[in-house]
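batch job 7 of whatever, protein = F-box domain-containing protein
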Amino acid sequence: MDSLPYEILGEIMIFLEAKDVFQKFCLVSKYFYGVTKSTYHLTQLISHKLHICRPMSLTLPHAIKILKKTTRISKIRPIEFLGFATTGGVDGDIASNWVGSLFFKNSPGYCSRERKDNINCAGVLSSTQNGLLSDGRSEVRDEIARIIRNNHYARQLIGNDRIGKKSDPLNYIEEMIFRHIYINVPEILIHRNANQQTAHEFMFHLRELHNSLVNTELILASFRKREDDAYYLVRPINYENGDKGKNLFCAKYVEFSRSGEFTCPVEAFMVFISDYYIDIESSEFSVYNDLKSSSDIDTLVSINENVPRPYELFESKLHEYRLFNWTKNPLKPLLWGKFRKKGGKKIEAKLRDNFSGAYLYVKLLYPLDLMRESGDMSEFTNIDARYVGLKGVEIRI
């Protein structure tokens, strides 16, 4: 075997599991060990195993670090995304219903405009944007940041790794948490030892801060791609960093939630990823419109050879879903899911393949109409959803 060229051994190595490369393959001989210390062959292994399409320039220590990080369960974390685009508009043109909330786990969620199904929404890997989607600096935002960062309950919701430092401006996640707490449980922000008068004064202070925030919140009309279209909204981002930067995610799990007191919670949906941004009005998304059942997926696969093969159907009392094989297509479907009953709130699935990229998308296919039993007399349905996200690791190539 030592007579085989390095190139052949390198090709063999990329079909092995990373742990087998370092625990078995490298022990065969000094010649084999030399292959495992080749930056070129380790880069090929990473590209093959993680399905990375971008060019990589790695040092040997960095390549080994990526392989270890992506194979250790202990390194798996929720991956942070910033939602920036939707074809479904925003319910009531209220900024707190903006699609950005859909990509943040502890937010109130996203509510679309009425009379629209097959809604596509997009999020970008947060670390590619370098704070671009932060809404600037002001005394009001600094005061909110101070309150949030010194509140134990708020810190638990956000997570210590996502709390800004003392000198940092209020970040997007902290703002969402402040809005959520103020609307639902503002008393949590009051110091437990405060007397009644102090508590009353602080509640008044919170109301002033919240009102100031609302007065400077997102102007949704400025996100319209077409002046007369209130549905197709895109918040500007740094596409260069997203499409060609060195930060990527490697996804291991997909999560979706519709928990909350929604009148039109989503009933069926799909989740996708991509390496570079794909316009959410692209025909690549419309191929998957109106998939109401598992059999619809089978029909689609049989008539469209570009649709990747799905795995078998998973069924439970509350929901069902199908995962998809990895594909070379730019738009890569991860999961089709459907809630079977009103009680179904969340789907979490472990992916069968590694999926790497910089963008996350969700297609909200159609809603469950609970308007009448909720006392909502609106004439038309919209679609509501709480959260879509991935768990895995972030890497820098």
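notes: The two ends are 32 Å apart (CA to CA).
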